[in-house]
Design goal:
Blueprint: H1 23-37, E1 44-48, H2 55-68, E2 72-77, H3 84-100, H4 107-122, H5 130-134, H6 148-166, E3 170-175, H7 182-197, E4 202-208, H8 211-219, H9 223-226, E5 227-231, H10 237-250, H11 257-267, H12 271-284, H13 292-308, H14 310-315, H15 320-331, E6 337-338, H16 339-346, H17 350-362, E7 366-367, E8 373-376, H18 381-388
Parallel strand pairs: 1-4, 1-5, 2-3, 3-4
Antiparallel strand pairs: 6-8, 7-8
Bound molecules: adenosine-5'-triphosphate and magnesium ion.
Residues 9-16, 19-22, 49, 51-57, 243, 271-272, 275 line the site of adenosine-5'-triphosphate.
Amino acid sequence: MDPNANPFNPGAGSPPPELVGRDSILTHTDVILERIKRGRSERSLLLVGLRGVGKTVLLREIRRRALEKNYAVEMIEAQEEQTLSQLLVPALRRLLLELDSTKKTIAAVKRGLRVLRSFLSTIKIKSSNIELTLGIDAEEGRADSGDLESDLKDLLLALGEASKEAGRPIALLVDELQYLPRSDLAALIRSLHAVAQESLPFVLFGAGLPQLFSQVGEAKSYAERLFRFSEIDRLSHSESDEVVRGPVEQEGSSVTDDALEEIYKQTRGYPYFLQEWGYRAWNLAPSDGIDIKVARQATRLALEELDHQFFRVRFDRVTPAEREYMRALAELGEGIHRSAEVAELIGKTTYQLGPVRDALVRKGMVYSPAHGDIAFTVPLFDQFMRRTLKLPAKTKRPRR
Ligand SMILES: Nc1ncnc2c1ncn2[C@@H]1O[C@H](COP(=O)(O)OP(=O)(O)OP(=O)(O)O)[C@@H](O)[C@H]1O
Ligand SMILES: [Mg+2]
């Protein structure tokens, strides 16, 4: 079929032709946005799930909806080896300037900028001349103690007050939250808590890998009352069929049931893989539509591509010791396993392997769904390892 008309969109954060199976969570976010706008309080929402399930796409949709409701919105992405201040300051500055752009100059916004200026005096931000461009004096005694928790709290409170006075709510969207260092995450939670207590019109939407559950809980014990976690999972069989069938039919073509069956069997309903298979199948198909033969060809091509790109780049980021750990985890087969079993395969104790496992968690490669358990964050990663390292296929059943 005409590749120029191919509706599928595989890629990180690439909007799908049809956002399938996420209605209830979007309805919920609409309620949050509306309530915050009306000055009511609501818990911040954290989207948690494996790689490629559609967290970023959802954050983008939330951003779109927030803009529609006249929010001032910033969407940022945490990165490994980056501090919260580095991540947050440019975004908060843009938010303040946006509030400032309303005709009337609002005292609270000016004050917010002065507090930001104070905050900046306590941190070093690499390769940035934000201090110079603010062109405003610092607010003495606010956000300048040098203690991140208390300074960030001052800053977010000032921002919340500015937004209230300007009559424009703020939505801050933070992707890849699992990369924040623990103390930074604690400071963020503490600050959000202060903002929520004052019922200021400021809301955070976050997204991250499943390690975020425990990271948030460990950072602050009261965090669960401040956040609502929403688990973003793979799609059901019928939703997966819809991901493929919907856009194909929309373009006036068709896909057979057995082709859909093959695609679901291979992708297990993971959104990124569904887009990838749909994209391949579309380009391979003759003009009369996608049948089982085309779907099988798509499987071959998609796996080849994933093995050389998607899985490979992740595998190349780890050290030999980490690779050995991943290899053992892959050998145990799909799903969740005991870390003790991984250790046993390697011939070491779980204690000895602790640092390796922790490094892999920090890199976002694996996570621990429950104490003593371990699993890959990238769906189907075990299959990739077995294919490329020619490991024997395990018949052992996954624990979940
Ligand atoms: N609900 C959905 N319906 C159809 N396609 C979707 C859906 N959600 C996501 N996708 C597709 O899946 C792919 C991955 O989405 P996205 O980048 O948002 O995932 P992610 O969870 O942020 O992954 P990562 O953890 O790697 O950042 C994109 O190509 C997107 O178009
Ligand atoms: Mg993402």
